[in-house]
Amino acid sequence: MKIHLVMLGKTRRPELRALQEDYVARLRHFAPVEVSELRQAAALDRLKTEPTAVWAMLDAAGRELESREFARWLSGLRERGVRELIFLCGDAEGYPDSWRARARERISLGKMTLSHELARVVLAEQLYRAFALLAGHPYPK
Asked: For the chain, which has fewer Cβ within 10 Å, the N-terminal or C-terminal residue?
């Protein structure tokens, strides 16, 4: 299953970008990963995605999952034959309505407010942790 992280705007802080890139590189050991940083919300329509892709949005009002629950959710998608999972990550202003309409799933990273740049790092880390859990890798201990 391909993981596609679609982010509105860039991660500008170099230390957060480095962390995000590190976790994405680790994640690539388990699944193909694509990262798209879009300047404008309308660019989402030009991305080439699988017609059957599952769209998930980071949303403070979304479903809160523990790391193992998140891993089970990903495993279930894989078992159902989902070929592409797209995570939508907004910017400081949130999401345009057109992005909200696409997302079938809404995932919360927790009740605390995170900057959009830090949320991207947390998502990348949790994706890596989930795939490591599913592979029986010792990292999640």
From this structure: C
**One-letter identity of residue 141:** K
CATH code for the domain defined by 2-135: 3.40.1280.10
List, in sequence order, the alpha helices (H) in 6-89.
14-27, 67-79
Query: What was the pLDDT predicted at 38?
Result: 95
141: pLDDT strictly greater than 80 = no
Hey, where are the domains in the chain?
2-135
Q: E strands, the chain, where?
A: 2-8, 33-38, 54-64, 84-89, 105-108
Task: State the pLDDT confidence band at 56, using cuts at 50, 70 and 90.
Answer: very high
**Which residues make Cβ contacts (< 8 Å) with residue 107, sequence separation at least 6?**
56, 57, 58, 59, 62, 63, 65, 70, 87
